[in-house]
Amino acid sequence: MARKRKKRRSAGSRWGLVAVVAVLAVGIGFLGGYLWNDLRAVRQTARRADTARVETVVGQLDPAGVRVRAANRAAADGLLDRLRRAAGQSPGVAVGPVSRRDGRLDLTVAAGPDRYPVTILWPAPAERVPRLAIVIDDVGRNLDRAEAFLDLTVPVTLSILPRQRHSRDVADLLRSRGRAYLVHMPMEPQGYPSVDPGPGALLAGMDEARIRALVRQHLDDFPGAVGVNNHMGSRLTELEAPMGWVADELARRGLFFLDSVTSGRTVAAEVARARGLPWCRRDVFIDNDRTEDAIGRQLERAVQRARKNGTAVAIGHPYPVTLRTLRAWAPRFRQLGVAVVPVADVVRTGEG
User: Fold this and answer.
1) Are 256 and 227 in contact (CB under 8 A)?
2) Which of the residues 6, 129, 298, 312 has the least number of beta carbons within 10 Å of its own beta carbon?
3) Continuous segment of H or E residues that includes residue 315
4) What is the second-level CATH architecture of the domain 131-346?
């Protein structure tokens, strides 16, 4: 009888132990699930905090994608600049390569392992008049002069020459005005070194790694730039390989290339076009002859080119006489049936 009672107690103890283990397993599972959910919520909250600056620019990010509308292409470029700066101030957040098409920019915001597609859209111009872009090169030596060009009543595009006394000051000024700008990248000319393109120039004798590194340095110095054009470069722009390396670096950042056409044998625009990089090329230099009459005649040529082809690009320099002539011409462009636009408005894609 005593043995039976011991067996019953032993069996009861085993079942009790099983019950305790089961309860503990359920409890641990519940606690683990609670802690996992809590950890996941903490991670999501941290990630949301990381993307908070970006979301002040484009709204709440969504893995399915978000669309943002801008008034025009220049406003879209300004929005992209703000987005890049916000990402740069957010640990673990980056803006991926940008794809440019007519009326839209497509990009991805990366936050840790998460990816958020963003599309910036703008409407096509209601009025398709001939468009003329006027680019002012060699900006960065004189801040007051740069500001005077910005005060013109036509939207000229400034191209900043790197490593000058006021290069970054001009970039800050342009950002504060919401104006898009170019990097005027120095490249080797014919006659180098007697003809000096300045500090940080891309030279024909450099290897691929050195050219790519210099391009990245210049672009990192001006994160708000929407494109690049060549400063000098009558030698380098004739060479397919180095221009291909330049095009690759610009494509990674969603920029475009304006071929200043400093050589009749330039391949820069053709290389950009072959690689799918948005591009355009200079039609007229307006101030090789620094007199108001001569600059006026060149502006007339630029207007005629825009009327004939639909678009044209004119390049000038920050000379006082160029400023005076453009100020006098500002009301005439519309009278002549041509709209002066930022150079980003005349870039082409593919074979266009």
Assistant:
1) yes
2) 6
3) strand 311-316
4) Alpha-Beta Barrel (3.20)
The pLDDT tens digits for 306-329 are: 999 999 999 999 999 999 999 999
Supply the pTM of this predicted model.
0.75
Spatial separation of the C-alpha atoms in residues 214 and 231, rounded to whole Å: 14
**All residues at 6 or more sequence positions from 279 whose CB lies less than 8 Å from its CB, including other chains:** 256, 257, 258, 259, 268, 269, 272, 273, 347, 348
Nearest to 158 by CA among 229, 219, 84, 85: 229
Q: Please give the C-alpha separations between residue 226 and each of 2, 23, 93, 189, 256, in angstroms, as whole numbers.
A: 94, 63, 21, 24, 7
94: enclosing H helix or E strand: strand 93-95
DSSP state of 236: G
Return the H-helix or E-strand segment holding 329.
Answer: helix 320-335
Task: Note whether 158 and 150 are within 8 A (CB).
Answer: yes
Give the separation between CA 257 and CA 298, rounded to whole angstroms: 23
Chain length of the chain:
352
Token pair, residue 228, equals 């690049």
Task: Please state the domain extents for the chain.
Answer: 60-121, 131-346
Other CB atoms within 10 Å distance of the CB of residue 14: 10
At 175, the amino acid letter reads: R
**Cα–Cα distance, 274 to 58 (Å, whole number):** 32
